[in-house]
Each structure stands twice: as C-alpha cells, then as structure tokens.
Design brief:
Length: about 600
C-alpha cells in the first residue's frame, strides 16, 4: 500500500507508556515531515495497532481515474468488510464513511457465524439458516470412481445456507477458500442447482461456504485480481459438498412434513377433498378434534428432492468392469518357458490369472536408493497421477507407435504407453531394489555371444577407434567384474563361465521382449556410470526400464488376423501394463509435454452436437 498511498502505522502495547507512529513510502520508513528522521516517533494512542491509508493512488493518475464515485466505491468496501465479518465472527468489525456520525457496520467480538449473519443480513435470513460440515473423510455414495485416492489432499468445508422457506431475487454467496474471499462460477452454479427443485422459478438462496484445502492444490493465477481460483479434484469436492447440502435440505423438508402429519393425526387440521378445495387444509374446532370427524385421507407422501444429473455429466464406465479375456493370458509361444520365475517353477500354473498382485516396497538402508525414491516423489504431478490412477482403458490406437486411449471421468486422453511404461518400470525397479523376482533363462545363453550380436548390429561400433572384439571384451569384463553386485542388488545372475542364468522380473504376468536382451546387455557397458553409487543405480534401472518397454510392433498387413506376437503384446499392455500403471505410477510433470494429450471432453461434445 505504501507504493500507491500515504501509509502510517500507530501501535502501542500494554507495557508501553505511549504509542509509536511510523510513516512508509515505497516500502521503506520515511520522515513524517522534512527535516525529521525516519525513525518511529512517540505519540498518544490506545492499545493496539492502527494502519491508516490516505491519498490512495495519488502517484498513479491512471488508476486514480479508474475509480468511480465515492458512494459506489464505499459500497464495495462495505460489502467486502461485511463478508469478512461473517467469516471472522470472533473479531469485532466497524466500517464508517468519512463524515458520517454512526458506522454502517459494527459487530462485536466473540460472536459466532450465525449471529454475525443475523446482525449483518437480518433476522429473516438467520431464522431460516441450515448448517452443515463436510470433510474429505466422509464417503460419497454418488462418486463415480471405484477406489478413493489415499494420497489425495484432505479438505474440509463449513456451510450456512437458507432453507426452502427463504426466497430472494438474487443469489448471495459468501465463498472463502483458506480464509480468503474468492469467486468461483462453477461452485456458484452447482450450489444454485441444488435449489432448482426447491425454490420457485426466479427465487434464489443465501449461502456461506468456507473451504479449507491444501494450499499446494490451489491455483490462484486464474484471474489478474486473484479473485477466481481453481483447485485439484474440484469436480469431486464440489459434488461432495452439493450432495451434503442437498441431503440436509431433504432432511429439513421431511421434518416439516412430519410436523404437518402430527397436526393431522391430532385432529387440528383436516384435508378437504371437495372438488373446489382439494388438497387444502382447514383448522377443526376443538369439539371435533376428539370425535374424529372430518379426518382426512392417509398421511401424504414425504417430499423428496430428486437429484438430476445431466446427460453430459454422466460417466458411463466403471473400473469394476472386467472382460473374460483378461483372466486368460495370451503368451508368446517363444516366451512360455522363459517367462516363468524361479519361484513358480515347482508350481502348477493357475487356470486364471489374478493381476492385482501387490508389489511391496523393499527395505533398503542405502542413502543413494533412498534419495532416488525421494526424488520420484518430489516431481510428482498430482493431477496427472490421479488421471492415470483412476483411468478406464479404452483401447490401443496404434501398436507400432505405442499409442493408446484412456478415459478419466468425462475426458478422453491419448497416451504414449511406451513412455508411461518406461517411467513405471524405473519406479518398480526402485521399489523392489535388492528384492527382485527372477526370470530364469534355460538353457542359459552366453554373455559374450549376446553382447557380440548387439555390437555387430550397432552402427556406431563401426565408427569407433576400437574393433568390435575389443568393445565386446571391455563390456564382458565390466559385467563379469561386477557379478556379485548384479546378483545381490538386481537378481541378475551371471555364472563364472560367463552364462546369463537369470534376469530381474519387474512385473508379474509381464514378460519383456527377450529379443532386446543382447541390446540391454551391451548398453550396460557404456551407458551405466559404474564409478558413482547413486548414478550407477539410477542409470542401471533406467536401462532395465528401457529393456522392459513394450517394443513397437509393425503389423503384418498381408495377414488378415493379428500374429501371435501382436496378440501377446496387446494382452500384456491392456491387462498387465495399464493396471500396474494405475496402481504404482507416480506420474512426473514431464509426461505432459508430449506423452499425455486430451483429445475429447464430453460436455464439449454435447455443445457441438447441440449446434448441429
């Protein structure tokens, strides 16, 4: 304020013998008059602090000229102070126009919200107020999701709103989010919709809503004045609040019907059934109340407020849906034997597959692994993680380009499942560090042979100063020297004879393309930083994740039916990869750059068809 007005502060504590006054300009202490120092000066004053702002916008003529008349600006100030007085009933507020003898607003301290509304907005509103408290811990019967996000931020709300007996020409909404007066057209529209079946057409309610939510979930940079805000899980929170308020309204209506029925049964009222006055009630005389004469028909039906959901807001899918084919895996014939873990070799394969296998986080005391796990949580994008966690798989769009469609709520997204899988398998590697299951290779292939195949196919090896044999020797020497570390941390077993006996298994019911095994082993030599512990673990797990990424397959157009490789890849992506993504992926913001794109929104599609 000191940048656009003359600002002074007068303050005094109970222990001080006098008050102190300081003047500010452009954020710094300034002298009150020329020739004086800028230090605070003693003066007369009461206990407390008084902040005085004068000559507003004296140095910004453009903003000064944008101000309207004094009466209109004062009306706006009074409106804001009244709303904050309702929100802070424990604080005394007073607002008086310059030159006026009495204040236009004066509230006592130590009050409550309902009493503050009575003092400011009148007894008519106060006597019809209903109260409701809503928290995120309460279950919502109307939620469209199967599971509740355990990591979603908690929130709470308090609401005071008028019953069906109060009717006004214009809606009055006092909305506070984290004790800040804001505006939200979406919240206002949703709250007004509650009264559509309660109030007559053209009538509006009075509502006060205070919402407490995690500050990290709020975006205040929606409007230049910071009056409008957006926050995470906005649709779900609004829906929960509206459901609770509607439930309170219904209960209040039922209690009124109960009182009405009590009057009927006691003989005080009689329902007239004549054709001219059907449905009207009249009061019976005292002598007829005990005789039972004039008793009306049976008790009327309890009034209920139907909850109407527009078609454009309906979500017609559920995570509980499961197809029959998901229970029977489609395996690549070349991987049926090698795709079994060492722990499963002595067991009979189950007739059906349960994909909801929990992957527990291993206990690890290495500071390097702990720091890598913490780094994953720091880059988490909450909204994208929620989309992946509560998605509905629609289908694979292009297997050769790793493109799939998923649905979340009323929106459709095109995702690169290859990029999502690479991040997932890296995080699964960190999650199971030092406690991997194994894929046993029988018969075990030669490490040198596999590396030689990859080096021979690598075009960059021909431009190296080293021969192919020298490159192979170096890579094999690096891996052989670190056999003990590989088997201890990653369950990757290489025998003393140089035979690859097992590789780590990151996800059950998902077998990587073993055609990529030579390339994986070759890249472990130059791509892994073996000199630094943290960088070594990170780069190794990144290479392991790259090895596990579904390989883009080019479909055979000459064949009318998909090949066995393509059928196996499609089954693994839909029934193994995407359920694991929903359960374990902590999505970083980097995936939003090009790997997750919104392609459709149900309400927008309805608008398009309405124009047609």
């Amino acid at each position: 304020m000191s940048f656009v007005a003359n600002l002074s502060v007068t303050t005094k504590t109970k222990a001080d013998t006098c008050a102190w006054r300081a003047h500010y300009a452009d954020g710094h202490l300034v002298p009150a008059k020329e020739g004086f120092t800028a230090d605070p000066k003693p003066c007369a004053g009461n206990d407390g602090t008084t902040i005085t702002v004068e000559n507003l916008f004296y140095n910004t003529p453009t903003r000064l000229g944008a101000l309207r008349g004094a009466s209109e600006e004062y009306a706006r100030i009074l409106d804001v102070v009244q709303k904050y007085a309702v929100h802070n009933p424990h604080v005394a507020f007073s607002c008086k126009k310059a030159g006026s003898a009495t204040p236009d607003l004066s509230t006592p301290s130590g009050s409550d919200t309902k009493q503050a509304i009575r003092l400011i907005y009148g007894q008519t509103i106060a006597k019809e107020l209903l109260h409701s408290d809503i928290t995120s811990s309460e279950d919502s019967e109307s939620t469209s999701r199967m599971d509740v996000d355990e990591e979603s931020p908690s929130w709470s709300a308090e609401a005071y709103f008028t019953s069906a007996n109060y009717q006004a020409k214009k809606t009055v909404l006092l909305l506070f989010i984290n004790h800040r007066l804001v505006e939200s057209a979406r919240i206002k529209k949703a709250l007004e919709a509650i009264y559509n079946g309660v109030l007559p057409k053209g009538s509006s309610p009075f509502m006060y809503l205070s919402l407490q939510i995690d500050p990290e979930s709020i975006d205040v940079n929606v409007h230049p004045t910071k009056r409008e805000v957006r926050f995470l899980n906005e649709d779900a929170i609004i829906e929960r609040i509206c459901n609770k308020l509607q439930e309170t309204l219904v209960n209040q209506s039922q209690s009124r019907v109960y009182e009405y029925q009590t009057l009927l049964t006691s003989g005080i009222l009689e329902i007239q059934t004549s054709s001219k006055a059907k449905g009207k009630a009249k009061e019976l005389p005292p002598e007829e109340r005990d005789s039972g004469e004039g008793s009306g028909p049976s008790t009327p039906a309890i009034a209920t407020i139907p909850k109407k959901t527009l078609s454009k807001h309906k979500v017609r899918t559920s995570q509980k849906d499961r197809t029959l084919e998901s229970m029977f895996p489609v395996l690549n014939p070349s991987q049926v034997v090698t795709g079994r873990t060492a722990e499963e070799e002595d067991e009979e394969p189950p007739p059906a597959v349960r994909l909801a296998t929990e992957i527990k986080e291993s206990e690890c005391y290495l500071s390097s692994v702990r720091s890598l796990r913490e780094a994953v949580g720091k880059v988490k994008h909450h909204q994208l993680t929620e989309i992946i966690e509560n998605h509905i798989f629609v289908g694979i769009v292009d297997l050769s380009r790793c493109l799939s469609l998923i649905q979340h709520a009323k929106k459709l997204y095109l995702v690169n499942h290859g990029a999502l899988a690479e991040e997932l398998f890296y995080q699964l590697g960190l999650r199971q560090f030092g406690n991997f299951s194994r894929i046993r290779l029988e018969p075990p292939p030669s490490l040198r042979t596999l590396v030689s195949l990859a080096v021979h196919a690598e075009e960059g090896a021909k431009n190296s100063r080293l021969s192919e044999d020298q490159i192979v020797d170096r890579i094999v020497e690096i891996l052989m020297d670190r056999r003990e570390m590989l088997v201890e941390y990653f369950s990757m077993t290489i025998s003393s004879e140089g035979m690859v006996e097992s590789i780590p298994l990151l996800l059950k019911h998902y077998t990587p393309n073993l055609d990529k095994l030579p390339l994986f082993l070759m890249r472990l030599g130059p791509q892994v930083n073996w000199t630094s512990e943290t960088e070594c673990f990170e780069s190794f797990l990144r290479e392991l994740a790259y090895f596990y990424v579904p390989e883009p397959l080019i479909p055979d157009k000459s064949s009318p039916s998909p090949s066995e490789d393509e059928q196996s890849a499609r089954w693994q992506i839909q029934h193994a990869l995407f359920p694991a993504l929903a359960r374990y992926l902590v999505a970083p913001k980097s995936l939003l750059d090009r790997d997750v794109v919104q392609v459709a929104n149900l309400p927008d599609l309805y608008r398009v068809f309405e124009r047609c």
